[in-house]
Design brief:
Helix content: 25-40%
Number of strands: 13
Structural class: alpha/beta
Radius of gyration: 18 Å
Strand content: 25-35%
Bound molecules: oxa(dethia)-CoA
Number of helices: 9
Order of helices and strands: EEHEHEHEHEHEEEEHEHHHEE
CATH class of the largest domain: Alpha Beta
Shape: globular
Largest sheet: 5 strands, mixed
CATH topology of the largest domain: Peroxisomal Thiolase, Chain A, domain 1
């Protein structure tokens, strides 16, 4: 028997306020047509004034617990992927822990920007396989609207707020790719590219800042590196694109999603796409897409799912799992 970290439940939360592309036209030299054609984004959700990342994360976590039919006491750990925590410390994960009423176990944040959920999944998988935790809540939650320069049309039209959560629990398989659960992970980063996507402020520099991005450069890296990491993760377990039921990519740009699918030899009807409705929600985008994909009836028990993401760092990676 082989130990596996198996999906027990999934859920998400999106704030009520929906901002349509056309709303940018009053204050910026942009258009619904430009945003749709260059990014595939049609609308995004924005957190209410005063609403925090930990608040959205807690709501997504509750939805995942309900989906799994589990109680808070059934959890051993919470890992929260975010670049927009409520405070510098404590971690947003411990705030979620308190909000949920969880008084045992442990909670911590992971910061790998848009790749954060992939990093968090890999960490949760390792905790379960090593026996340090039996059941882990993994959350991606972001309030990127708070780090937007709302006068910069090249960035502010692309991002949104939201949260998604997934529960992994210890299970058993026979050690083949037919097992349910996480089958492989592939993590990468290369800090030489830190200047093409970053926030120009922080604590030790004693500044506050906004997201800055060289979109074209990030785009170029994205298609190449996402296809490569997904292929590597599949190869680790002897699989290819032909074995994949669903690609659940980070939702940054429909053209990146299409380009990556093409490189993997997959048609778009095997890809879960939510970018039109959510925009880029950074670490929240994959768990949001997993939850929406399940709700739509796309992702079903036993399906082979590949998730992949890239973001600031650059940091990128992929996880192959059987749902
Ligand atoms: O999640 C982290 C990873 N992030 C990403 O994956 C984002 C990657 N990059 C992208 O998605 C795309 O590069 C963008 C959507 C950001 C931009 O698309 P693009 O096709 O690369 O456009 P561009 O940056 O080359 O800009 C084309 C033109 C420029 O004008 P000129 O220099 O050709 O006159 C921009 O100034 O479009 C202009 N532009 C806009 N025009 C109208 C930039 N933003 C806008 C805008 N509305 N919002």
């Amino acid at each position: 028997m082989t130990k596996r970290a198996v999906v027990a439940g999934v859920g998400h939360y999106l704030p009520d306020r929906i901002m349509k592309n056309s709303e940018f036209e009053a204050s910026l030299d942009t258009s619904d047509e430009w945003i749709r054609s260059r990014s595939g984004i049609e609308r995004r959700h924005l957190a209410a004034p005063g609403q925090t990342t930990s608040d959205m994360a807690t709501r997504a976590a509750r939805a995942a617990l309900a989906d799994a039919g589990l109680a808070v006491d059934d959890l051993d750990a919470i890992i929260l992927a975010t670049s927009t925590a409520d405070f510098i410390f404590p971690s947003a994960a411990t705030m979620v822990q308190a909000e949920l009423g969880m008084t045992k176990g442990f909670a911590f944040d992971v910061q790998a920007v848009c790749a954060g959920f992939i990093y968090a999944l890999a960490n949760a998988n390792a905790l379960i396989l090593s026996g340090q935790a039996g059941r882990v809540m993994i959350i991606g939650a972001e309030t990127f609207s708070r780090i937007m320069d709302w006068t910069d049309r090249s960035t502010c039209v692309l991002f949104g707020d939201g949260a998604g959560a997934l529960i992994l629990e210890a299970g058993e398989g026979d050690g083949t790719p037919a097992d349910r659960g996480v089958l492989s992970t592939d993590l990468n980063s290369d800090g030489r590219f830190r200047d093409i996507l970053y926030v120009d402020g922080g604590v030790s520099t004693q500044t506050t800042g906004y997201l800055r991005m060289e979109g074209k450069e990030v785009f170029r890296h994205a298609v190449e590196k996402l296809a490569a990491t997904a292929t590597t993760a599949l190869e680790k377990v002897g699989l290819t694109g032909a074995d994949v039921d669903w690609v659940v990519p980070h939702q940054a740009n429909i053209r990146i999603i299409q380009g990556t699918a093409k490189k993997l030899g997959l048609s778009m009807d095997r890809v879960v796409v939510t970018v039109q409705d959510h925009g880029n929600t950074s670490a929240a985008s994959i768990p949001l897409a997993l939850s929406v994909g399940k709700e739509r009836g796309q992702i079903k028990r036993g399906d082979l799912v590949v998730t992949e993401a890239i973001g600031g760092g650059l940091a990128w990676g992929a996880v192959v799992l059987r749902w």
